[in-house]
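During the reporting period the student researcher (J.K.) took over the structure-prediction task from the postdoctoral fellow and processed the backlog of single-chain submissions. One of the processed entries is reproduced below for the supervisory committee.
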Amino acid sequence: MTPLLAVEDLRVAYPARGAAGGWTEVVRGVSFTLGRERLGIVGESGSGKSQTGRAILGLSAPGARVTAQRLAFDGIELLSCPPRQRRALRGSRIAMVLQDPKFALDPVMTLGAQIGETLRSHRRLPAAALRQRVHEALAAVGIDDPERVARLYPHEVSGGMGQRAMIAMMLIAEPELLIADEPTSALDVTVQLQVLGVLDRLVADRGMGLIFVSHDLRLVSSFCDRVLVMYAGRVVEALASADLAQARHPYTRGLLNCLPQPLAPRHPLPTLQREAEWAK
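J.K. obtained the following structure tokens:
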């Protein structure tokens, strides 16, 4: 069976600073496949999680060099397909929830206008039907009184509400693949569960593929089907989420050991001891 997404030897590099020149690789040989499932990618800041997601969507920063033996969505080679075809895929069949709504949302457009623009870019709908879809998308991520919220600007809502609006924006076109970069980091526990429920239903009912990027090991282990652990730009371990507690790599073991243990307080708190060979 052909996977929804196939990634083989993905590399992302940026021009190195200083007189020596050259390139600095921030994603180094990442390979995985994704079906109609929930794949978690975990690792500390700077490990290459977000850069991997942006490279798949074609949103790497200007100047980036993105290469891969294969980077295919539904059989379409993303690095060699025409730019127009890749733009058509972005937002309609592949979408990404960015991490910080303060920078991802347009400050001079209402939330409703931004969400509607995403759908209008790919489908022709009457104005009344478009507004109805926007309100439904906001309600689906747990926003009360979606008609009122749709008229607000990003600076008029909290960070958590802005993040939910951004999730609604990415889901309104019903993509087949969603890359969610820390989608619940600014949400309280109750709303977090609502949003996770929405994502879970999309995977189960519509067969959507989900790449869930997070720092929260406990959340990933309970929500995702499989987990990739990244360190220094490469995948150091891949395993089923149910087996995360039995991880073998010392980096993964170190991350798990740093988790709080409410019933077994430890003093001093453990810290992650890195080894130079992990980055090789």
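The committee noted the following: The longest strand covers residues 23-34.
J.K. will present the remaining backlog at the next meeting.
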